[in-house]
Every structure is written in C-alpha cells, then in structure tokens.
Amino acid sequence: MQSLYPRLRKTDILVLATPVYVPLPGEMQNLINRLVPLMDPSLKNRNNRTRARLRSDTAISKLVLVSTSGWWELGNFGTVLRIAKEFAEDCGVKFIGALLRPHSSYLTEDNPKTRKVLEAAEQTGYQLVKEGKISRDLLSIVSHPLLLHQIGGTKTD
Ligand SMILES: Cc1cc2nc3c(=O)[nH]c(=O)nc-3n(C[C@H](O)[C@H](O)[C@H](O)COP(=O)(O)O)c2cc1C
Asked: pLDDT for 41-71, tens place per residue?
C-alpha cells in the first residue's frame, strides 16, 4: 500500500475490479479498508448520513466497478455493487458505472459473442478515459447473455 498511495493520490478515476465471492473476496474488502487513509478524518452529514471525503491531496473524483460472477443473474452483483456505491458516497466521489459480466466461465470460449463482450469492455475503458463516463449501450453489451438458455429455462437470446 505504501507504494500504491502516491499513485492513488494522483489518479482521477478509481477502478475497483473484483469477482463476486459471496459476496466478495476478502482481499477486496482489505483493499477498501486500506484506502481509508486517503480520507479526510473530518466527517460531514450528507443526505442524513455521516460521510467522509477524500483528503485535498487526493485527485480521485470518480469510481467505477468492474466485476465478474459465475452465475447468470445480475442480482448476484447486488452486494458488491452496493459496497462500491457506498464507498464512493463515503469518499464523496461520483460513482459512474459498473461493468458486470455474469457467466464469466464462458468468456474463455473464443467465439463472436465472447469477442463482442471483450471488445465492448475494452471500448468502455477508452470511453472512460476520454469522456469520463460510460455509455449504457456498452454496459449492456458487456453483460449480454452468452447462452441460448439460462438455468431455469428462460429463453434469453
Ligand atoms: C469462493 C467463491 C465464491 C463465489 N461466489 C459466487 C457468488 O456468490 N455468485 C456468483 O455468481 N459467483 C460466485 N463465484 C464465481 C466467481 O465469481 C467467478 O467464477 C469469477 O469469474 C471468479 O473470478 P476469479 O477467477 O478471478 O477468481 C464464486 C467463486 C468462488 C471461488
């Protein structure tokens, strides 16, 4: 962390990337806890919640979540998404979106559908850097179904 703090202070967009591990790997929670030293210790009430903000020497103004999960439903990301949004609120930075990729194991298959997903994920990175935002169209391509029939028999594609 001591080598990361100077780089984190200079970055404008913080990207948290984690798989869903009922709900998240301990390493990601540890990282979030170790980001707390970037916060200013003076607390404020914002929208009836006690919140902090980042120290004035820290440039981060936006936060993005990138996550994969094994199962299909986007609901699997609910807790990880909430943790990332809460952390953004606690830091007083803008949460600008989440790249969510369910059925991650199918991404290892090389076919037109998986290539489209991976290309969209890459485009999202470029868009984020150039425009500071992510389009909903790209996000929906990233989370697009890869199987004809999902578990439960719902026809999705
Ligand atoms: C301990 C553990 C818990 C997991 N929990 C979930 C879960 O709750 N929901 C889900 O959809 N996938 C779950 N998965 C699947 C992973 O999210 C998925 O395979 C992911 O792509 C793994 O990324 P990694 O290979 O970088 O660890 C879990 C995997 C592990 C190893």
From this structure: 899 999 999 999 999 999 999 999 999 999 9
Burial (0-12, 13-18, 19+ Cβ within 10 Å), 84: buried
- The answer to whether the beta carbons of residues 63 and 88 sit under 8 Å apart is yes
Cα→Cα distances 32→14, 100, 151, Å: 11, 19, 33
Ligand 1, from 27, 68, 69: best to mutate by most atoms within 8 Å of Cβ? 69
User: What band does 109 get if pLDDT is binned at 50, 70 and 90?
Assistant: very high
Going along the chain from its start, the domains and CATH numbers come out as 5-156 (3.40.50)
Residue with tokens 């969510």: 100
Q: Which atom of ligand 1 is nearest to the CA of 72?
A: 11
